[in-house]
Amino acid sequence: MPNRILLFCALTALTGCSKKGGDDDAALLPQVKAGLAERESKLNSYRIAGTVQDTGQEPVTFTFDYRAPQRLRGTLGPPASRTFSWDGTRFFQRLDAEKQFITFASELPPARLAGFLSETFHPFIPEGFRTPLLLSNTTVRRATHPQAPQAVELTQKLEGEAQGLEMTYVLRWPQLDFLARRTRSPGGAEAEERMEEEDCDATLGLCVPKRLGRWQGGKRVGETVLTQVRLGAPLPNDAFTLTAPEGYDVQTRTLVPSSPTPPPTDG
Fold first, then answer.
1. Which of 5, 23, 24, 196 makes a 20 to 30 Å CA pair with 66?
2. Is a pLDDT exceeding 80 seen at residue 260?
3. By the 8 A CB rule, do 78 and 61 touch?
C-alpha cells in the first residue's frame, strides 16, 4: 500500500500539481489588468518637473502636465524651450528659439490621433506615471524585490520593428507601483530602468518614482530626477490651450492621416 500511495503522488506531481503554479499565474493576470486600470484612474491629474540626463551630457529640464481625459502639455528647456500641448481638440507647438507658434487642428481618426499623442508626449512621461501596454503574449508571475516584499513580473515579447525584444516590468503588489523595467534583445544585450527614489501618496494609496536610473550592460548610463511631483494638481482647461507670445511667427496647420511623424521633442 505505501508503494501505491507513493506512485499515486508521483503521478499527481507530473500531471495536475505541476500545473498549479501556472494556473495561479493565469488567474493573477486579470487582477493585474484590473489593478492597473484602477491605478490609472487615480493618476487623473498631475504636474511634474525635473531633469533627464545621459552620462557625460548636460541635464535637460522638462515639465509635464496631465489631466484626464487626454489633456497634455510638455515643455523642454530652457535654454532652447519647446512646448507641446493638446487641449482636447487642438495641438499646439511653441518653439521659443525660433519664435514660432503653430496651432494644429486635427482630422486624424481616433486611433491615429491616440498614436500621435502617445509618440509626441511619451518622452515627458516617466515610468510609473504611464500604464504598461500589455500584449496578448504577456505572462505574469509573483516575485520579490529589494524594495517590495511582494511583487509581480510581467513579461512580454514585443512585435513589429522591435520583434524579439523581451520586456519585463516589475511592479509592487498589490499597489502596482513601478519598480523596474528590464529589456533583453535577441542577441542578449540587456538594459534596465530602476526606481531609486519614490514619492508616496497615502490618500491615493500609491507611489510614483522621483528618481529613475538607466542601466545598460551593467553600467549606469543616465537618470531621470523629478524635482516636483504634484498628484491631483488642479489644472484648468486654459493650462493646455496656448496663446502665441508677442512677436512670434504664428501659423495654422491641420493634422491629417498622411501627416509625417510628430515633431521631434529632443535636442
1. 196
2. no
3. yes
Type of residue numbered 207: C
Residue whose C-alpha is closest to residue 169's, from 111, 127, 210, 207: 127
Q: Read off the pLDDT of each residue in 205-212 and give the average, rounded to a whole number.
A: 98
- Distance between CA 230 and CA 28 in Å, rounded? 31
pLDDT value at 23 more than 70: no
- Model confidence at 25: pLDDT above 80: no
C-alpha cell at 172: 509592487
For residue 103, tell me if it sits in a domain: yes
**201 strand-pairing partners:** 206
Q: Residue 86 in contact with residue 70, Cβ under 8 Å?
A: yes
Domain count, the chain: 1
Question: Distance (Å, rounded) from C-alpha 264 to C-alpha 260?
Answer: 11
- pLDDT at position 14 is 40
Q: Please report the pLDDT score of residue 160 as a whole number.
A: 80
Pairing between strand 71-76 and 190-201? unpaired
The CATH number that applies at residue 243 is: 2.50.20.10
Q: DSSP E strands: which ranges in 38-164?
A: 45-54, 60-67, 71-76, 82-86, 90-95, 100-106, 139-145, 148-157
88-113: pLDDT as tens digits: 999 999 999 999 999 999 999 999 99
Does any domain span residue 54? yes
Residues whose CB is less than 8 angstroms from the CB of residue 252 and which lie 6 or more positions away in sequence, other chains included: 102, 103, 104, 105
